[in-house]
């Protein structure tokens, strides 16, 4: 059993490492149903043990990354102590910097979802057409349906990619508003994604819409 678990753990680790997005358990199970894996003994108990073995192994000082649960799936992440050294490389690779307007709008959606564009504009005090479209294009926001209000306006919420982008497994992991002090610099540090330079964070409330 132990030998079988370790063999499965090595394969699962390779699958997660190669995946472009967090790999869910059901996706791993589906992969192991392919004929290429037919010779391996595999079940839910072995998978759970394999995932635990991977996490335990990567806690060792010899490894610079760890296995994290992100939006219900597993993905490799650089350990926190290395963020300052990789923020301009692996952590933010292929991620376009978000403008102040985009971060303000995104933070409102994250904390108030599901929310209409009119409600977002009421909070920000400016028109948000461009910014909401931009967040939709970046797959950070998706449409959650329509509000039961005159005109049936669209409702917006954060997407699965939002969870991956900010490295969280649930919205509840965002900093609590009651825990954020009035000091702007402290707020920025609380909301900034892992590895994001300090000048890429923002404080909601700015009344000027910015181009991205």
Structural description of this entry:
- This protein is α+β, with helices and mostly antiparallel strands.
- It contains 9 helices and 5 strands, in the order H-H-H-E-E-H-H-E-H-H-E-E-H-H.
- The chain has helices at residues 2-18, 25-32, 44-58, 83-86, 100-112, 117-124, 129-137, 160-166, 184-191; strands at 65-70, 73-78, 115-116, 141-146, 154-158.
What does this entry show, briefly?
The chain has 212 residues and is an alpha+beta fold.
What's the topology here?
Blueprint: H1 2-18, H2 25-32, H3 44-58, E1 65-70, E2 73-78, H4 83-86, H5 100-112, E3 115-116, H6 117-124, H7 129-137, E4 141-146, E5 154-158, H8 160-166, H9 184-191
Antiparallel strand pairs: 1-2, 3-5, 4-5
- Biggest sheet, in brief? 3 strands, antiparallel
Spatial strand order of the main sheet: 3-5-4
Q: So how many helices?
A: 9
Q: Compute the CA-based radius of gyration.
A: 20 Å
Q: Give the helix proportion (percent range).
A: 40-55%
Would you tell me the structural class of the helices and strands?
Answer: alpha+beta
Mean pLDDT: 80
- Globally, the shape reads elongated
Query: Strand-residue fraction?
Result: 5-15%
Q: Could you spell the SSE succession in H and E letters?
A: HHHEEHHEHHEEHH
Measure the end-to-end span. Answer: 54 Å
Could you list the spans in which at least 5 consecutive residues all have pLDDT below 50? 180-212
What is the number of E strands?
5
């Amino acid at each position: 059993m132990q030998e079988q678990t370790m063999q499965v753990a090595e394969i699962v680790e390779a699958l997660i490492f190669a995946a472009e997005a967090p790999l869910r358990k059901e996706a791993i199970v589906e992969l192991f149903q392919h004929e290429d894996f037919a010779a391996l003994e595999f079940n839910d108990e072995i998978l759970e043990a394999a995932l635990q073995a991977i996490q335990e192994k990567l806690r060792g000082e010899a490894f610079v990354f760890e296995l994290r649960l992100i939006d219900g799936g597993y993905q490799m992440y650089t350990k926190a102590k290395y963020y300052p050294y990789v923020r301009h490389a692996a952590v933010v690779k292929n991620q376009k910097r978000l403008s102040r307007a985009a971060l303000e709008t995104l933070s409102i959606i994250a904390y108030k979802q599901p929310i209409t564009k009119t409600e977002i504009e009421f909070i920000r005090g400016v028109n948000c057409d461009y910014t909401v479209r931009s967040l939709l294009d970046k797959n950070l926001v998706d449409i959650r349906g329509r509000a039961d209000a005159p005109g049936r306006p669209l409702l917006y919420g954060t997407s699965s990619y939002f969870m991956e982008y900010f490295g969280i497994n649930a919205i509840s992991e965002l900093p609590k508003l009651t825990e954020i002090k009035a000091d702007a610099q402290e707020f920025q540090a609380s909301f900034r994604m892992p590895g994001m330079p300090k000048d890429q964070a923002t404080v909601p409330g700015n009344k000027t819409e910015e181009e991205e």
